[in-house]
Amino acid sequence: MDRVDRAFEAVPRTGFLPRAARWRAGHDGPILIGYGQTNSQPRTVADMLRLLDVHPGQRVLDVGAGSGWTTALLAHLVGPDGVVVGVELEPDLAAWGGDNLARCHAPWASIAVAEPGVLGRPDRGPYDRILVSAEAASLPRALVDQLADPGRMVVPVAGTMLLAELVDGVVTTSGHGRYRFVPLRERREGTLGHE
Prior knowledge:
The chain is an alpha/beta fold. The chain contains 5 helices and 11 strands; from the N terminus they run αββαβαβαββαβββββ. The strands form 3 sheets. The protein has a 7-stranded mixed β-sheet. It has a two-stranded antiparallel sheet with strand order 1-2. It has a two-stranded antiparallel ribbon with strand order 10-11. Helix 1 crosses helix 3. The chain is globular. The N and C termini lie far apart (33 Å).
C-alpha cells in the first residue's frame, strides 16, 4: 500500500459528501455537491495525488477545494510539519468544506474563499506542490508563479492532465491522460476558481 492509498484509508470520502449522497461514497465517479460542482472521482484524485508526489513537511496549494476532501488528503500526506492552503470560489462551499476539514483535526490545513481577481493564494506561497481540481484552457501562469523551485503542479488543461515541473527556473510539462473537469473560470466579481 503506497502513501496515497494510506491517505484514502485515513480520510474516507463519506465525510465530504452531502448527507443524501453519502451512501454513494464507494462509487468511483464524481458526485454532485451543489453549486454545479462535484466531489471528484476517487480514481482521478488518486492519479493526481500520485503525479503530485507530495512529501511530509511540504507546503501545498489546493485550488478548487470544494468539499474539502482533497485538502484533507493533502493534509494527511504533508503531516503536521507541512501546510495545506485550500481555496474555493463559492463562499458557501468553502464554509462547508472548511467544516468538513475541521473534523479531520489537521490544523495545518485550511480552506478560504478565493480572493477577488486572484488565482490561488500568492500571499501564502511559494508552494512545493499545487493541485488544481478544475480545467484550465492553458497552463495558468499565475499559479506557476506561486511554485517554489523546485516544485510540481498538477492541473487539467484542455482535457489533458498536465504535470508542470519547475526546476532551476525552467518549467517543463508532460501529459498524463485525458480527464474531464469543471472549468477554471473567473466570476463576474473578478474571483477565480471552479464551478
